[in-house]
Amino acid sequence: MKVNNDFKKTAIRAAREAGSVLMKNLGNMNSFSLKRDKSIVSKIDYSTEKRIIDLLKSKFPSHDIFSEESGGDMGKGYAWIVDALDGTTNYIARVPVFAVSVALFYNKEPVLGVIYNSVLKELYLSEKGGGFWVNGKKPKKRLFSSDSVLVLGKGKGKKNIEKMAKILKNSIYDFRAFRIFACSALDLCKVADSKIKGFVLPGANFWDVAAGVLMVREAGGCVIDFQGKDWNIESKDLIAFRSSRESKSFLKNV
After folding, report:
1. What is the pLDDT confidence band of residue 44, given thresholds at 50, 70 and 90?
2. Long-range contacts: 89-93, Cβ < 8 Å, 24+?
3. Do 228 and 204 contact (CB within 8 A), yes or no?
4. Model confidence at 236, in pLDDT bands (50, 70, 90)?
5. Contact 161, 155 (CB under 8 A)
6. Quick one: pLDDT band at residue 40, thresholds 50, 70, 90?
7. Where on the phi/psi map is residue 157: left (φ > 0), alpha (ψ -120 to 50), or beta?
8. Which of 42, 109, 202, 247 could form a disulfide with 163 if both were Cys (CB 3.0 to 4.6 A apart)?
């Protein structure tokens, strides 16, 4: 599917502008609140989200928009999914692992993804059938041994934490190291870029991973749920590796 070039330009502009705001305010956020699921939200989440939504609405008034903080619609046709600050806890603590994520879906399937790491000025881009790009270049594939790094997410709530603990116990000898970076968007980019072996997330919110899923798939990887089915916006969990064999093989650990 050929994605309208104006869609790409606008998504990139939105991500870069939001990233610029994040950098200008980094270290200045002294207040935050807890949402119902105990996750953190700050003023910067709302302000950067509004900036992105206003731009998308002005450019594409007929498109649906769903964002993490404001909600929205996800009907048939074109729908934007926005996470203006993935990694809020890291951001507030001045841990430099956070990102802006903007995805475009068509008939509930991802067709465009843009993720911007404003700390390292890395712009990740994928479009359906168009490959995976980092700062305008296709990255070189890296080969990893079977004992490489697995990144985990714990999701929200006791059940998801228990799932993660089970996964860690079952796979502890299969990987050289484990990490929890708490930024799903960047975790998926690192799988796509072969910088980590895989990413597993119990309790995956679709707005956190919408753009990143397309990155992995367009890089030749495989993203499934804990039932072994291809990930979709209704999926509750996520397994992402650089090959279908690796993703499906990991199912034994969940």
Report:
1. confident
2. 89/39, 89/40, 89/182, 90/181, 90/182, 90/183, 91/22, 91/26, 91/29, 91/42, 91/44, 92/29, 92/32, 92/40, 92/42
3. no
4. very high
5. yes
6. low
7. left
8. 202
pTM attached to this predicted model: 0.93
Query: With bands split at pLDDT 50, 70 and 90, how would you rate the model's confidence at 174?
Result: very high
β-bridge mates for residue 71, sequence order: 67
Give mean pLDDT, residues 101-122: 97
- Beta-strand pair 237-241/198-202: antiparallel
The predicted model gives 96-100 an average pLDDT of 97
At which residue do the structure tokens 């998926």 appear? Answer: 188
User: Which two three-digit tokens encode residue 190?
Assistant: 């690192």
SS3 for 147-158, per residue?
CCEEEECCCCCH
Report the sign of the C-alpha dihedral through residues 147, 153, 157, 160, in that order.
negative
CB atoms within 10 A of CB 54: 11
> Span 86-97, mean pLDDT?
92
231 phi, psi to nearest 5 deg: -60, 140
Instruction: Look at the chain and count its residues.
Output: 254
Domain chopping of the chain, boundaries: 5-134, 149-253
Instruction: Give CATH for domain 5-134.
Output: 3.30.540.10
Q: What is the pLDDT of residue 34?
A: 53
Largest Cα–Cα separation, the chain: 51
Chosen CATH of 149-253 out of 3.40.190.80, 1.10.630.10, 3.30.450.40, 3.30.450.20: 3.40.190.80
Query: Pairing relation of β-strands 177-179 and 149-152?
Result: parallel
